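Please check both lines for our workbook:

___
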Amino acid sequence: MSQQEIDGDGFQIVTSKRRTKNKQTKIPRKEVEFIKPENYIDVEASYQRVLTAVDEIKESDYFSDVRKAG
């Protein structure tokens, strides 16, 4: 066994027993190109969907109960 190294406070200096190696990946890297699709939003259709949802909420029993409670 090698001689133990001791620091100034009397503690043993610990070193790693494992040796670091340059680990190479087993699968070679390849260039990947991400293509972001163009998103088209139909503003008028979206607006109509929001208006429809608001109408449905106004007609719901839950909304009526909340209004009565408030």
Q: What stands out?
A: DSSP finds two helices and no strands in the chain.
